[in-house]
Amino acid sequence: MTNGSILNLKLFKLSLICAFFLAILALPGIATAQNDTAKATEKAFDPKAIIMEHISDSHVWPVVAKSYIPLPVILYTHKGIEVFSSAKLMPEGTIYQGNYNSYEIVENHIKVVGADGKIDEKASIIDFSITRNVISMIMTTTLLLVVFLSVAGKYGKTKGKAPKGLQSFLEPLILFVRDDIAMPNMGVKYARFMPLLLTIFFFILINNLFGMIPFFPGGYNLTGNIAVTLVLSVIIFFVVNLNGNKYYWKHIFVPNPWWLFFIMIPVEIVGIFTKPIALMIRLFANITAGHILILSLVSLIFIFKTLWVSPVSIVFVVFMDAIELLVAFLQAYIFTLLGALFIGMAIEEHHDHGQEVI
Questions:
Q1: Cα separation of 324 and 211, whole Å?
Q2: Of 122, 255, 269, 285, whose CB neighbour count within 10 A is largest?
Q3: pTM of the entire structure?
Q4: 116 lies in the same domain as 217
Q5: What does 254-302 look like in DSSP terms, one character per residue?
Q6: Helix 3-33, helix 47-55: angle, nearest 10
């Protein structure tokens, strides 16, 4: 059996395990959502609520079914800063009387409640809370720092020797980013931007992979959060335009031929902003769509209210989970590749054309 076949077999087994645990954890959560303990009447199953709960951010850390760990809430209004536990707002609909205002969670957003008990839409509130996505980002960032600082330290101690352990696993990925992404798109100036490209690649990759594992942590959806992809795209936007040389800006503001001045300049200016927007939307849409599709397939069992659908549903979940595993790597690669391409276009010198990068 070839190395490629062994790798494909391992990826399939990993996808099967992820799909199995996703289905096992989704079933009690979905089943529990159908029953309202406060009401005697049976509640209709709402797949939209289950899916949105998974893909959206939250002020609690879900564990299993309806159990959760409350997270810190940090709010700023015109009256001042308030800090308290999200347990005081749970379950949703509970009103908490703070020092300055009363608050309530409405669809994962904290709102100010007026003296009449109704939501005050005019009240100004800024939410700095430590949400599920923030905790997830801190965890994965800490993991990346620990792993790469450890690997960098070992390289210093074992200089000139063959890599071992974690080094041997990460080195091909690092060389892949350098040789197949950075050097072809940036030329001789690639080394300056390697730390940025490696950080973006591994940050997206590890969050894509962990987002597929329900146990870590509660099946979060960090790279499927448009705020996260927006920040990553803004970073690329500033790096591109702050490092753009005279040829880059001349291409935008001095079109050739000159008589296309009134058409090309607006188009090029719009292009400055549409490139990072495309990065933002592509990553957000692909990751979110995968999570929605997998949860929708699991929900079919409860929509049809029969276990006869479960074998078909689980088979499709396994298949889609295998596709999602591929997408996790692919989206990290595409985002990093396009980021390198945009930076390379901004720093390219005219006399570099035709030179071969060694």
A1: 10
A2: 255
A3: 0.81
A4: no
A5: S-SSGGGHHHHHHHHHHHHHHHHHHHHHHHHHHHHHHHHHHHHHHHHHH
A6: 120
